[in-house]
Amino acid sequence: MSKITAAITAVGAYVPEYVLTNEILETMVETNDEWITTRTGIKERRILKDPDKGTSFLGIKAAEDLINKSGVDPSEIDMVIMATATPDLPVASTAAYVATQIGATNAFSYDLQAACSSFLYGMSTASAYVASGKYKKVLLIGADKMSSIIDYTDRTTCIIFGDGGGAVLFEPNEEGLGLQDEFLRSDGIGRDFLRIEAGGSLMPASEETVANKKHYVYQDGKTVFKFAVSNMADVSERIMQRNNLSHDDVSWLVAHQANKRIIDATARRMGLDDSKVLMNIARYGNTTSATLPLLLNDFEKQFKKGDNLIFAAFGGGFTWGSIYLKWAYNA
Ligand code: UT7
Q1: Which InterPro entries match (predicted)?
Q2: Does the first or last residue of the chain, that is N or C, have fewer Cβ atoms within 10 Å of its Cβ?
Q3: What is the C-alpha to C-alpha distance for residues 238 and 147, in angstroms, rounded to an integer?
């Protein structure tokens, strides 16, 4: 019997309609299109304006898109993993709610939080369950309503983040396609540089935490940038070496969209030319857990069966890593 690998067999995505452009941000904070474009590569982001809708809405829409495109019967899904840094509620699982709403009534489900690496780590978890032979259909959703935790008077963060969701289905493969190798890392040193200070067990919500804006994302951008550039490039280079992949063997770099300069630096270390580097940061900004599946959805038609994809991400914690996956179908 051939070894079972876990392959991505379908993708879907959703972004909200409202477009927050650099020009609109110029009217909100002291910034300008030229600064944002040259420092980050971002031109616009999508924002979920409806105050009654949380991250589950983005996840449900993305999963429904996948179900409609692929024709998968949601009642056959065994497991739903919701990669998110912005769950609907601090305690009740967003994944459980999403699974029920999409009709995945025979699935068990849970949330997975690793900041901007949530989806990458989720790929590891989803594929391990499938490759073990335990489950046959694992739905991995990456979604974040970043606008719910951003201070729109803070120019250092509000220009970066956007809202969105994406989903992939992992299924067993007997042709050796799907996830080949992974190199995942974390370092708790990161918690001082990228965090939300209050609202957790360390500093519960109080009138003071609200008044002092401690429920919003804080980032020491320069420091995070330095760690992101070196670590994302390191793991991507390492996974290539470990699998004897030259730059010619790599078909696509699927990198977390936090800053165009970080992605370019990673691609340079890997020796890739721009045509292999997937990029949609200009349109969506940093959607945290949704960047990787949004890329897969946007570029799905260009992928061919057998293509070698290198995934890379870096995020709060710090958390980071790289995954090597062989694409399993022609769209
Ligand atoms: O996804 C999770 C991981 N996160 C990341 O990977 C993000 C990593 N960090 C970054 O992408 C970048 O550090 C930022 C985009 C956040 C900032 O870019 P930077 O080139 O590191 O800028 P900086 O923070 O060093 O700021 C440079 C200057 C400062 O002015 P002075 O002190 O040189 O006079 C800032 O005050 O730019 C100023 N500045 C702005 N100017 C116009 C900061 N934000 C803005 C702004 N518009 N929005």
Answers
A1: ACP_syn_III_C, ACP_syn_III_N, FabH, Thiolase-like
A2: N
A3: 34
| Longest CA–CA separation in the chain, Å | 63
Using CB distances shorter than 6 Å, the residues near ligand 1 are 31, 35, 39-40, 116, 155-156, 159, 221-222, 224-225, 228, 258-259, 262, 286, 314-315
Please tell me which residue in 22, 158, 231, 256 is annotated as part of the active site: 256
Mutate to test the pocket of ligand 1, among 32, 39, 193 (most ligand atoms within 8 A of CB): 39
Closest residue (by CA) to atom 3 of ligand 1? 315
Q: How far is the CA of 42 from the centre of ligand 1 (A)?
A: 13
Residue 228, CA distances (Å) to 83, 103, 193, 264 in order: 20, 38, 12, 12
User: Which domains, from first to last, does the chain contain?
Assistant: 5-176 (3.40.47.10), 179-326 (3.40.47.10)
Give the pTM: 0.97
Q: Is 256 a catalytic residue?
A: yes
Tokens of 30: 């002291």
Give whole-number Cα distances, 126 to 69, 104, 134, 283, in Å: 20, 16, 11, 28
Residue-level pLDDT, tens digit, the chain, 331 residues: 578 999 999 999 999 999 999 999 999 999 999 999 999 999 999 999 999 999 999 999 999 999 999 999 999 999 999 999 999 999 999 999 999 999 999 999 999 999 999 999 999 999 999 999 999 999 999 999 999 999 999 999 999 999 999 999 999 999 999 999 999 999 999 999 999 999 999 999 999 999 999 999 999 999 999 999 999 999 999 999 999 999 999 999 999 999 999 999 999 999 999 999 999 999 999 999 999 999 999 999 999 999 999 999 999 999 999 999 999 999 8
Contact 58, 291 (CB under 8 A): no
Nearest CA to ligand 1 atom 13: 221
What is the identity of the amino acid at 281? I
